[in-house]
């Protein structure tokens, strides 16, 4: 159904125009290349601190399946998934909400032939473009540090994009439901809680059983598992399940976002 | 006669009353969640650091890091916003409130927030059995010193910029590296020799080491007066910078 | 004390780098006066107001506010001023009442006194029923009234209003004027800037016209009209293609505009009769009393500043 809606209404040129506006807006900010480039350093710094620094304290980690890996190998894919999530969310919640509520960017855009869904897709495409650049750079660092192989890194790349897409779509849907900035603290808090308890720093197997059930229902867990499985070079049917979860999340997020936008902006 | 700085503090508190729900969670609950996820979760693989369990070792780090992040959080967007969008400082400028009062009022507010979070965190850490020395009672004092040492210069920075994307640079090049490599998660000795001095110039590292010395009842790596002196210098120089940056911004 | 001027400026200059915003002005404002600065954008009105408000220091010249020197006694002077800035700087997240009480505390008032004063002012600016609501969703007129109430919170000797009604709709403007008129009646000294002629005529006992950082005229609204203008103005429109300018010579001062011709004269009806006697046939004729707007345009010209 979503694809039928997409086919009927979406013009790639108009979606492209929405992306183009973002590129222009970015260039007008001060030191924009620096800001853009620094987005890449952040996950690398985390990798160096937690993966290498704390990794030296941890030494090696015995996983549930019996494999023994270096802590950095364990934690790096999780960092990648977390950075894909937070990159997509910051673009589609904080920035998206600002444009919707204050800058009136969307009202201006929607006074033209561009449709709400095209706005949503354009914003998402923009978030994905940035995410792709950061993901690619992070994978290069992982390969250089010997944390994954080149071949598997190529498989991780689309998986990380899917993570960004899923969180981006949901982030946009959430933005349309926001009443004000104070609600964003909830988003930030939820995001941080996911970050802490998705098998990011230690295997989910260590969690108490109740917490484990809750965690296994949350999106970042599936993201981390998907990325970690591919980065470790261990494909399996389970990975398809994680990918399916993220695809469903993308579709649901887009559907809600488009409907809510239509209602909010085209009264 | 109420002091103008206290009147400025009261405005912050009045605003906080509107927004406390969300920030209460992030200042009281998140540090504890972090402790559980990292201190307990990762701690089981770490064994001992510096003669104690990883949880006890990381508690003072997380405590100082919480103070550090809250101090930054209270002196970035809200300060720029009061110059640029809300123009709250311009409103104050038209009254007997002076530039120094604005800075001091903002610092007092940051202090109140940091202290309340730190005390709650200490109690939780005590329940976890992570406080090993009665000296732990001085950590709120260290946290206060650290908060001013960080908030004052960051306020100066926020008053000097005119676009909020400079904050992204501040966070990514100064704040996050400090939090990640300032001795919170692993000892600074592990850093390569060449980058170690970068940790030494971060106020966070000095705060972390003082807090750690207090909760574990051991001597800090450098003499106490050096650590405290560095923080005092940051606080003093930062305060001077903040006052002059506020003054410059409001002058014409 | 009562005869000492509240504001006294001699040769007041304000420069920003190479740009001279205020270029040597003299003025005095006496207690109880309603004094206006009139001028186009960029004339130096706001810069002058900011110097009077002791938030910007003069580059040179002498300035005394309430008999004190702003450079030395800035905080003491500001403690006795009420300022309504051009850009609203209310706290949008606080309630109407909280905006008044937090601001009152800046003046060192006790909590009880701040609360009592806030209640009085809520009535004065007719915001009683919005007292508990947040400021952000209020209309522009309500925000302005709140800003004025806030400026009154310390019972000031002198109230400064920088373009108090810019951007408001007619109803809101009239309500605000009425409130300001009440303030005048109570003997509060008002100093305001405006580029609305009707506002200046409504509110000011005395005004100065500023242009390019200088004072180009000074007096009461009526005396300015008397000095710089004729009592009446005739507005004539002619059919397309007719250029009557030469034929009007001698009737009065002629100001040809793209769409009409203004004729400044002592007696409008006589001038119209003379136009007809000369055989000119305008397509429309309007005789009106001259206003401050005519003075303003004569003194500051018709060129757009920005």
Automatic annotation (TrEMBL), chain A:
One of its GO terms (biological process) is response to antibiotic. InterPro entries: ABC2_TM, ABC2_TM_bact-type, ABC_2_transport, Nod_factor_ABC_transporter. Residues 34-264 form the ABC transmembrane type-2 domain. It is a multi-pass membrane protein. It is found in: Cell membrane; Membrane. Belongs to the ABC-2 integral membrane protein family. This is Transport permease protein. It comes from Streptosporangium saharense. The lineage of its organism: Bacteria, Bacillati, Actinomycetota, Actinomycetes, Streptosporangiales.
Automatic annotation (TrEMBL), chain B:
Keywords: Antibiotic resistance, Cell membrane, Membrane, Transmembrane, Transmembrane helix, Transport. One of its GO terms (molecular function) is ABC-type transporter activity. Its main location: membrane. GO terms for cellular component: ATP-binding cassette (ABC) transporter complex. PROSITE patterns: ABC_TM2. It is a multi-pass membrane protein. GO terms for biological process: response to antibiotic. InterPro entries: ABC2_TM, ABC2_TM_bact-type, ABC_2_transport, Nod_factor_ABC_transporter. The chain crosses the membrane at residues 19-42, 54-72, 110-131, 137-157, 169-188, 224-246. Residues 22-249 form the ABC transmembrane type-2 domain. Pfam families: ABC2_membrane (PF01061). It is found in: Cell membrane; Membrane. It comes from the Bacteria. Belongs to the ABC-2 integral membrane protein family. This is Transport permease protein. It comes from Streptosporangium saharense.
Automatic annotation (TrEMBL), chain C:
GO terms for cellular component: plasma membrane. GO terms for biological process: response to antibiotic. One of its GO terms (molecular function) is ATP binding. Its main location: membrane. Transmembrane segments: none annotated. Pfam families: ABC_tran. PROSITE patterns: ABC_TRANSPORTER_1 (PS00211), ABC_TRANSPORTER_2 (PS50893). Keywords: Antibiotic resistance, ATP-binding, Cell membrane, Membrane, Nucleotide-binding, Translocase, Transport. It is found in: Cell membrane. SMART domains: AAA. Gene3D superfamilies: P-loop containing nucleotide triphosphate hydrolases. Belongs to the ABC transporter superfamily. PANTHER family: ABC TRANSPORTER ATP-BINDING PROTEIN, ABC TRANSPORTER ATP-BINDING PROTEIN NATA. This is Lipooligosaccharide transport system ATP-binding protein.
